[in-house]
Amino acid sequence: MDVTDGSPLVAYSPKPATAATATANREAVARFDMDDRQDFADADRDLIAPFPDKLRGADGHLIFDTAKFDYLSDDAPAPDTVHPSLWRQSQLMRKGGLYKVVDGIYQVRNNDLANLTVVEGDTGLVVVDCASNVEAASQGMAMIREHVSDKPVAAVIYTHTHIDHYGGVKGVVSAEDVTSGKVPIIAPGTIASFDKHAIGENVIAGNAMSRRAGYAFGSLLELDPTGCVTCGIGITSLPGVTVSYISPTDPITETGTKRELGGLEFEFLYAPDTEAPEEMHIWIPQLAALTCAENANHSLHNIQTLRGARTRDARNFARYLDETLERWGDDAQVHYGPHTWPVWGNEAITGFIESQRDTYKYIHDQALRLANKGYTPLEAAEEIELPQELGRKWFNRGYHGTLHHDVRAVFTKELGMWDGDPVTLHPHPPVESARRFVDLIGAEKVMAEGKRAIDAGDYRWAAQILHTLVFAQPDNQAARDLQADAYEQLGYQAEGPQWRGIYLTAAKELRQGVQAATFATASPDTILAMPLDILFDYAAVHLIGDKAAQANLRIDFHFTEADETWTMWVNRGVLNARRGASADTQLTVTGPKAALVGALLKPAAAARLAQAGQLTLDGDSQVLHTLADLFDEFDPNFNIISP
């Protein structure tokens, strides 16, 4: 597999929109109230300061220049290469800087995928979500210090377990201040559960998730009208950033729990198994301010993410949004979110939350209605449309989730991975199916049908039939180029930015080969922050099961900071671990967690760490070499669009 660094000798030149795509995008305008400009006024409201400079790393390297999106000016018409609804949303997402939400609440928006929200109390600042990375959070906090307040950070709140809400925490507060108890971190669920889902989701399956996210968030594309036009709920996914993690210290596990933070009262509604496994809504009565975290957004959300994560419960979205209305709906005067812009005024807030509630419940109920009539997930997704009163609301459009893949996700959540059709129960893998298909039809006929479908504007069918030829003959560049043409037009027609990113990245990699990854969710900081049980789980997914089937290894790891020993053993192709030392261990490895993480995940490096005095080895060190031979390596640039 050839991997490019994203800067090939021949610059990448996407093709223009075809006449069919231009027509489809022009006709889409009629489905929307393009004269409704309230969102533009709201997104501009109470700007305190624009970003003072480009976002840079600690060493000065450029991370993000907001000028890259200057083409999305408010009066710029949608080009033929962008769906008009997505263009409008992207114009809104371009607006960024430091904003006043109400007196006492401030947001830094759109120097990152997510917002940084700061609540000012009499005695300190409460930071609600920290952006996805240290650099964006640091820039945001510097703007707060310059324009709002230099009060100390009194507390940090994570609204849920996703990386774009905790990844910037070390740009907000130091680990020492948290460890000392000076600054609590409040989060939903038990501490163990939050850690498990925050780190486990982003690290244990992190290599797969990062590669898929590179497609979905358009991070391998140029920032222009033929590439990434924002991520829909945030400006863009940023490359070359520092992702951090500090474990919560104050868990919220019951609705109605209250905390006094910075001189203000915060009340929490615990909302697990919604947009994240652990999530909560927050009410600040003195400010009449509400956030439903990511359960209410200026976008339809994912029931199943395309980057990969656990499937969510659409019914729970609706249930907890309704409970929020019941508790605080009569009193809320502002709703602020961790993405996009706020909603002001009680009537607008209740209408917004009611509409989002009903959208998720409609998706859930109608998907299961059709399931009970014998529809498959894809059939149901092709059938279901939102009622006009829901579907014409801009905040219910698919700028993150889409109606189509959310319907399919309800089937996954409630009925599992099988669609009920016997032919899908044990099909041949893609390559074998493709070879059989091409052997039957012939490569020339497949190419001819692909060309015919593209000429007819039937890009879905073109991509589907050409997929067989690309998988049967992955070096057939003519087939790859033709499938790329189909994917490209599908991307230009997509309202959802993640669908657009996936299609356009597929087209680019078909033409130019795999592009080098720009981001990884499994950062060193998150790996070092892993609770020990999750650390051993992470090691376990590296074990090559069939190769380890005859292995019989037992190693004790003694973590000196915690004065805690874990025994790990490999037997029958499985890696297990538990607390406590083993009486028959073959080797004991002793040292601080950072060194032991290196020895566990890269066993071949243990001898070097021991020679450097970072850890000690007591017993047969050869078992680490044996373990190293049983561990797999994960390529961050694995193939997606070809075998």
Structure, explained:
The chain starts with a strand and ends in a 13-residue tail after the last helix. It is an alpha/beta fold and 643 residues long. The relative contact order is 0.11. It is globular and about 70 Å long. The strands form 5 sheets. An 8-stranded mixed sheet has the order 2-5-6-7-8-9-10-11. A 6-stranded mixed sheet has the order 12-13-14-15-16-17. The chain has a 5-stranded mixed sheet with strand order 21-20-19-22-23. The protein contains 23 helices and 23 strands.
Shape: globular
Count every helix, treating DSSP H or I runs of 4 or more residues as helices. 23
How many β-strand runs? Answer: 23
Helix-and-strand structural type: alpha/beta
- End-to-end separation: 10 Å
Largest sheet descriptor = 8 strands, mixed
User: How do the strands of the widest beta sheet line up side by side?
Assistant: 2-5-6-7-8-9-10-11
- What fraction of residues sit in β-strands? 15-25%
User: Helical residue percent?
Assistant: 25-40%
- Report low-confidence residues grouped into runs of 5 or more: none
User: Mean of the pLDDT scores?
Assistant: 95
Rg estimate, integer Å: 26 Å
Q: How are the SSEs ordered, and which strands pair?
A:
Elements: E1 3-4, H1 19-28, H2 38-44, E2 47-49, E3 55-56, E4 62-64, H3 84-93, E5 97-102, E6 105-109, E7 116-120, E8 125-130, H4 134-147, E9 153-157, H5 163-166, H6 175-179, E10 185-188, H7 191-204, H8 206-216, E11 250-252, E12 258-261, E13 264-270, E14 280-284, E15 289-291, H9 314-328, E16 334-335, E17 343-344, H10 346-371, H11 377-383, H12 388-391, H13 403-415, H14 430-441, H15 443-455, H16 459-472, H17 477-493, H18 497-512, E18 514-515, H19 524-528, H20 532-540, E19 552-559, E20 564-571, E21 574-579, E22 587-591, H21 593-601, H22 606-611, E23 616-619, H23 622-630
Parallel strand pairs: 1-18, 8-9, 9-10, 10-11, 15-16, 19-22
Antiparallel strand pairs: 2-5, 3-4, 5-6, 6-7, 7-8, 12-13, 13-14, 14-15, 16-17, 19-20, 20-21, 22-23
